[in-house]
Records
---
Amino acid sequence: MAEFKRVVVTGAMGFIGSNYVRLALREHPDWQIVVLDKLTYAGNRDNLADVMDRITFVHGDIAETADAAKAMDGADAVINFAAESHVDRSLIDSRPFVRTNVEGTLVLLDTARKVGLKRFLHVSTDEVYGDLHGSDHHSLEGDLLKPRSPYAATKAAAEHVVFSYGISFGLDVVITRGSNTYGPYQYPEKIIPLFITNAMEDKPLPLYGDGSAVRDYLHAEDHAAGVDLVLHRGQSGQAYNLGARMEVNGVEVADRILRCLDKPAGLKAFVTDRPGHDYRYSVDPSKAESLGWHRRWDWASGLERTVQWYVDNRAWWQAVKQRMEFRQHEKTWYSR
């Protein structure tokens, strides 16, 4: 197993990244952890407020060479969580997605070469495989990448750049492709925190089309554990799927959340479908499982725990939803 001393985690003021930092502090107490984060609308200092004294924070942009160099000075490894990640926003303006997801990854890779990095782990997504609707196939790491949204396209492009640096320059690179993730600290534009917080406010839960789109929901703690295992045990130049083997459609997500909160089914609202909506993602995580990774959370208990986190942390999500960035997107997107 690879050993590291100084690890840079980009985008760790966001959702999955902040969950990873908590895992790393617990599992690797000797690490020096450097967080590089731009603090976009989805970045939130409160996500790591209680551990700030145990990390080094660099407020910067992965697409800026000086910021990357400052954060990566003396680093052994980089875990790149930083990304623009909301499909809906990419359909409105894809330029920030190209800037962060592609150009930013390139800057990190160039910097990795200069500092002599031991390992670069790039966090990608199952969305690079495209829509599996109408089949019973589970995406394998060797499948062709067929992204269908601007977001997914930039993540696929970033993967090609990452692998090219492994081949062309001998950089030790690995990639994880995680399925749809849920859990604490998730920005409430994504389906699960949006539905939980809307239900708590007695607001509609907007379901695209007929609500039948299927996702494989993975708890953030399981996702973080998978990333950590691939960092240490993954084979250089390889990708690893991280999925829960639990396919759930949108209506079931809404129904279960409403039951957890004892809210009426009438809060479900079927809205205009997302353009180019992918109706099924599902990955085969056998390759990661062969390294020793297995999810701990099943769908029912994981969602119940997540709902309770939002109940217990009302002040956190209320502050987020009151900000202009959230209210403007909500008004623009759902008034189509």
---
Amino acid sequence: MLNTCLRLEWNDLNIKYDFETIDWKPESGYDTSVAPDTQPWRPYGAGRYLGLTIVLDAKLKEYYCSSTASVGFKLLLHSPIETPKIADFSLAISPGVETNVIITPRISSASWSILSLPRKKRKCYFTTERKLKYYRTYTERNCLLECEANFTQSQCHCVQYYMPKSANTPICGKKDDKCARDARLLMENNLYDDEEALDRLNRSESPSCNCWPACFETNYETQISQSKLSNAFVVDELYLNNTDQEYFTENMAVIHLYFVESQFPNLVKSELFGFIEFLSNIGGLLGLFMGFSFLSVVEIVYFMTLRLWCRITKGPMRKLQNTSLIKIHTEPKIVYPFSQ
């Protein structure tokens, strides 16, 4: 995000950006040599001044239908490698309101030492381990959305408009709405192991996704504060866009997105007890309760190997020496008569 005001018209959407782009991934991130203007964009720092300001025109008089009972916009913060599900997880932004969105990243990573552990134990996937059909980078949400698309296609022979699909896959129409809703409900219930959903929906098949979280993920938590726009104050001409202040306060929505902190904690998944930690704990416990140490191990090895070998090899020589001494003492004894 950059310190800028973003205002888009429909004829402005088909434009070409001259910014350099990179294949950003949570595992590799940004290289130190990458310029700040490279897409995906990054903020220069924390605070509203270094954040992103968006001005949106709702054009209330042109409304003729809506998927909800309100007017305005939907906002969702997501990783740049994920497809957002606006209908399920978005925030509602009302026109005539100035909204401050405080962003707190939640960064998760993993130690590469757990790559050798079984996947069922670490409960996460590295990017190189799991490949998706419609996405280049694996994330849990990408996997769930692809699984939902595959299951909907198998049940209804079509997919919803927001789902990934191939070129020859049709989009579900109004006549397929019930089938698509049942497939989606069964998909959601399967995430919580609801076996009764199969009986309620009269289905014999359930989706099997096996979508564990990625070992490297970036998510965002938000805090929102809002205040109503007023035409009693002077508004910047950049925001008005050739309109008057009365139209601005009724139809426009001003959104400020920014970070509060410049540094954030990183949650690292690693082995709780590796081989080195195991040896350290065993040695510490034995030393605490038995006075045991690595010197004791050396002594045990010595007595079981070298000392035993010395006794076995030098035993016959000692027997010979003892036998020769006995022969010396068995010489005939001379008795002198005058000594009696």
---
Amino acid sequence: MSDLSQRSTRGERILVVGPSWVGDMVMAQSLFITLKAHDPDCVIDVMGPKWSAPMLERMPQVRRAIVLETGHGETGLRTRWRLGRSLKGEYDRSIVLPRSLKSALAPFFAGIPRRIGFTGEQRYVVLTERRRLDKVVLDQTVKRFVSLGLPVEGTSDAIPEPHLQVDRVRQEALRQAHGLGQRLIAMMPGAEYGPAKQWPLAYFRQVAEAMIARGYQVIVLGGPKDRNAGEEIRQGLEGAINLCGDTTLTDAVDLLGACEQAVSNDSGLMHVAAAVGTHVQAIYGSSTPNYTPPLTQSRDIHWLNLSCSPCFERTCPLGHTRCLNDLEASQVIATMAVD
């Protein structure tokens, strides 16, 4: 047994195979909190993509992040075998959150005695406990995650809200580096899933104009792919800064923790904003807040709930995207009450 597995072993040693999307990984913290509530001495390690490791460090329930060096969508059989064998004897239980066969391979190769996950993709051998997914009872992603940590199939505890730790020293350094003031509004116009989840950029810009007129500074956050979108919002607006592509994920955690409100599509950064206590203006198009809501009481939901919604498509199958185009900026501006 390794030195690592010999430390802090009074409680159960649990390996969680985490999801591949930012928002889902944030919601997975509700599972980690639940596991600690049931067994405060348990040890939780989380296997996930490389990008997730710094964010998992902001979750105090997690002892360590284990990086799975495979690309999104890759099987990586040899990589999973090597990683699994390196973990042999380290854990008592594994909880596999994704429903794919490949996600369950590393715990199987590690020989973890209890390997729990939902039935899917013929996982009869690699899982020791295959649970039926009742989509009526477990009608939200976070409920499904939490249920896999509970002893009774198909049940869910009260859902604890995720809470990512903010590094205040780093936050102040970011303020200084980017010339940020004290009154900040964040905007996250990206939605990696597809355009059917992206509110029109012109509407984001209208909200930015209104917030700047009220004395706020607006920061636009996102990845490199969102840089042009951020520039379209920022261009010509004194008091707006486009940081898309210029920050890491943990930078975004700290910056969002400095903002009073965040205007966001249904995206990973929306869930990050909720998890740092920022008031969220959540905009839904092809998805639904009934399935993946921001896990906070400090939120406003903007969803037209048209007869064709939710379709969960990446692009509008009807070609009009009315679920977003008809959701006017004035509705969001009116909701953003400020002193």
